[in-house]
């Protein structure tokens, strides 16, 4: 039996990439922060973070016919890779701002949301080994991402760019811990 807090920890960990990017959007982008860009970014990131784990779960259920127990290793490996990448990105020194226009609209926003949700796709592979309900867990991930990004954007000027890196490191550590839980659960 899986603890009910696992979807919340998973959602929190997955939201950290989106938080780091949303802080960078506010700190770097040349626009006035108002409710509209906060809602656009947090809503888009939340939708992508909710949808992508379902895609990962469906791929794992339909495409991967793994021998008993191998699914744990696949889920662990994916979460280890994604978590390690998040940690690596979080400790990397940043060179200036990447945004020249408003990244809260159109294709730039979609590409940012897709980029920050690829780890959620990998996490969806772990739903079955963890005994998680896919729709509920994906909903929790999406709602937490929405809330965390909205608060992060609202506080970004106070938090500063350095907090985004720390958030990515913390998210990576959480994902690795969840991967270890998958691997060592009986």
Q: Specify Rg, calculated over alpha carbons.
A: 16 Å
| Number of β-strand runs | 0
What is the typical, i.e. mean, pLDDT? 79
Shape descriptor: globular
Number of helices: 7
Element-by-element helix/strand order: HHHHHHH
> Assembly type of the shown chains?
single chain
Beta-strand percent range? under 5%
- Contiguous uncertain segments of 5+ residues: none
Structural class: mainly alpha
Main β sheet profile: none
Level of helix content? over 70%
- How far apart are the termini? 10 Å
Outline the secondary-structure elements.
Elements: H1 5-28, H2 35-63, H3 70-91, H4 106-124, H5 127-130, H6 134-159, H7 161-184
Helix pairs in contact: 1-2, 1-4, 1-6, 1-7, 2-4, 2-6, 3-4, 3-7
What descriptive keywords fit this protein?
mainly alpha
Brief overview:
The chain is mainly alpha-helical and 186 residues long. The protein contains seven helices and no strands. The N and C termini lie close together (10 Å).
Tell me about this structure.
The protein is mostly helical and 186 residues long. It is 80% helix and 0% strand. The protein has seven helices and no strands. The protein has helices spanning 5-28, 35-63, 70-91, 106-124, 127-130, 134-159, 161-184. α2 (35-63) runs antiparallel to α6 and α3 runs antiparallel to α7. The radius of gyration is 16 Å and the shape is globular. The model has no long low-confidence stretch (mean pLDDT 79).
